[in-house]
Amino acid sequence: MSQGLAHGLEGVIAAHTVLSDVDGAHGRLVIRGYAVEDLAGHTPFEQAAHLLFDGFFDDLPADLAPALGAARVKVFAEVAALDEALARRDPVEAMRALLARLPDSDDLSTALLLLAAPAVFTPAVLRVAAGKAPVAPDPALSHAADILRMTRGQPASDAETRALDAYLVTVCDHGLNASTFA
After folding, report:
1. Is residue 16 part of a domain?
2. Beta-bridge partners for 29
3. Which of the residues 20, 37, 82, 169 could staple to 48 if both were Cys, CB 3.0 to 4.6 A apart?
4. Mind giving me the DSSP string for 3-36?
5. End-to-end alpha carbon distance in the chain
6. Which CATH number characterizes residue 160's domain?
7. Can you give the pTM of this predicted structure?
8. Cβ atoms within 10 A of the Cβ of 107, count?
9. Which cellular component, as a GO term, is one annotated location (predicted)?
């Protein structure tokens, strides 16, 4: 008595989430009830992140931008630990080592640090690998503008900032890798 091998994942539930819905058959991504094309280019990343955090933290501020800016500044302290040995590693390994230094908790403060960390660590790792000093975050800037400024060492144009901001919104909820299910 042998059972046949089922091919594909049709009908298989991979995860339950209230955050987003992927309708691959129709090419739609919905984040907290909003079509991604209605958010990207129209809603700042900080507001999209707020949509994802809403309902999970009782102390979530109405405006996430100042808290995220402060988290970028706080996480920059870990960049000081980017010593020569770490700087010589593969950038992904350096990122992994820096991220491992962050707290592991399920509170808003930790969530903000984890959201801020890649935006701070990536430019720092890239700059150190290129022989340049890391650039400290500016909490007054948007997340996208600050990423570009920390990467380049100078402010980005409004068009560049809008483009990165739109991209960040489109990838803000990627809990499952789509290629896994292709």
Report:
1. no
2. 22
3. 169
4. PPPPPS-TT------SSEEEEGGGTEEEETTEEH
5. 31
6. 1.10.580.10
7. 0.84
8. 12
9. cytosol
Domain region containing 103 = 44-173
| Burial class of residue 171, CB neighbours in 10 A (0-12, 13-18, 19+) | exposed
Tokens of residue 167, six digits: 């991209």
Tokens of 84: 């020569």
Total number of residues shown for the chain: 182
Q: Give the span between the Cα atoms of 128 and 95, in whole angstroms.
A: 12
Collapsed DSSP state (helix, strand, coil) of residue 31: strand
- CB atoms inside a 10 Å sphere around CB 99: 15
Which pLDDT tens digits describe the chain residue by residue (182 residues)?
556 666 776 777 666 667 777 777 777 888 888 888 888 889 999 999 999 999 989 999 999 999 999 999 999 998 876 666 667 788 888 888 889 989 999 999 999 999 999 999 999 999 988 889 999 999 999 999 999 999 999 999 999 999 999 999 988 876 666 555 55
Residue 119: which H helix or E strand, with range? Answer: helix 108-129
Task: Give the dihedral of Cα atoms 23, 42, 55, 112; nearest 10 deg.
Answer: 110
